[in-house]
Design brief:
With 344 residues, this protein is α+β, with helices and mostly antiparallel strands. The chain has helices spanning 2-8, 18-24, 34-52, 55-70, 116-129, 151-157, 175-179, 193-196, 239-259, and strands at residues 78-85, 113-114, 166-168, 171-173, 183-188, 216-221, 224-231, 273-275, 281-282, 304-310, 316-320, 325-326, 341-343. It has 2 domains: 73-297, no CATH class; 299-344. Strand 10 (304-310) and strand 11 (316-320) form a beta hairpin. The termini are far apart.
Length: 344
């Protein structure tokens, strides 16, 4: 079987599934030198890049994307938002792979995907570490629902013996992104490879200016992803409360993706995503395969809120009479001071 794959290597550029190419079509070069190995890696990566932009895959994936997007609950039980990478994104870099550098791809279609578990973990940490520290000074634990073990945190993300009320679905890349270069050739250059082996290695040596850098090529992702959150709580929950929790969770996740990023190498700027269209919209309002359209303003009963804090990012935090904390999703904040109240 391996010999048959080797014979097909010259036709790798005709493939339509990037995942299969990356996992099965690496051909060991006759010359085991580092230069030849890097050349083979690059050829394989270029085949995957060409495959993800093929017309055949684009047509097939567009149909699958439409079915997937239409599968989410309606009646306000689901929220969606389209986000675009500000640079590059790499999820699954450290996963087991024949190329040493992995990439999370959809099993069936071979296109980039961001697992829902990664989104949930990111949002949970950001909620506790950032939003949980934005409560009023001196407030007790009961007044800080975003902290770990707080009311909001437990309800949305769950506990050890209890699941959360919000489901974080895998984020699928939009069909348009495939033809715009979803996969990009990237490189990292460790300058002190022997030092990075650690003191237990026989090749370990302190870093010096005489070390030779060893470039390592890998694939990263660029494009737009559609994120879906859906309500998984009691069916008899009031629609207003469901909308409030899902919108707030989407706000936390969107902020976390822009500020912290998801996946690997976030300390180097990878993984940042920002909204394509700022307001989010319910699943039945988003047309599959196209940019998410801004939602119509939600007009509901006005309620009294009090300014609790103005953060360094310019956002104004409010507390409603029922103790719910939040900020404006759209519009201009009213010109009132901290501690003053108004109706929104």
């Amino acid at each position: 079987m391996r010999q048959a794959i080797i014979q097909l290597a010259p036709r790798r550029n005709l493939g339509h599934h990037p995942g299969v190419l990356l996992q099965r079509y690496l051909v060991p070069p006759d010359d085991e030198s580092d230069k030849k190995k890097q050349e083979e890696r690059r050829n394989l990566f270029e085949s995957a890049i060409q495959a993800v932009g093929s017309d055949t895959l684009s047509a097939l994936y567009a149909d699958a994307f439409t079915r997937w997007n239409a599968s989410f609950p309606e009646n306000g039980l689901s929220r969606s938002r389209e986000l675009r990478t500000t640079g590059r994104l790499i999820v699954g870099l450290g996963s087991e792979n024949v190329l040493e550098t992995g990439l999370r791809l959809h099993h069936t279609y071979g296109v980039p995907v961001v697992p829902g578990s990664a989104l949930k973990g990111l949002a949970a940490h950001y909620c506790g570490d950032v939003w949980g520290q934005r409560g009023s000074a001196g407030a007790g634990e009961d007044n800080r629902p975003y902290e770990r073990r707080g009311q909001f945190h437990d309800l949305v993300f769950g506990k050890t013996d209890e699941g959360g009320m919000i489901t974080f679905h895998d984020a699928w890349i939009t069909p348009e992104s495939l033809s715009q270069g979803a996969l990009r050739l990237d490189v990292m250059t460790p300058h002190h490879p022997n030092w990075q082996l650690g003191p237990d290695s026989p090749k370990f040596a302190p870093p010096t200016d005489f070390d030779s850098p060893v470039p390592v090529s890998f694939l990263s992702v660029s494009g737009a992803f559609l994120i879906h959150l859906s309500w998984n709580g009691p069916a008899n929950t009031s629609p207003e409360l469901v909308q409030r929790w899902t919108e707030r969770t989407m706000e936390i996740l969107t902020e976390a993706l822009a500020e912290w990023g998801v996946g690997g190498k976030t300390s180097s700027g990878y993984g940042r995503l920002v909204p394509v269209a700022s307001p989010d919209t319910s699943a039945n309002q988003t047309s599959a395969g196209s940019a998410a359209r801004p939602a119509e303003p939600i007009h509901g009963p006005r309620q009294k809120v009090t300014v609790t804090q103005r953060t360094i990012d310019g956002k104004v935090r409010y507390e409603a009479d029922d103790g719910f904390l939040g900020s404006l999703l759209r519009g201009t904040p009213p010109a009132i001071a901290d501690g003053e109240s108004t109706e929104l």
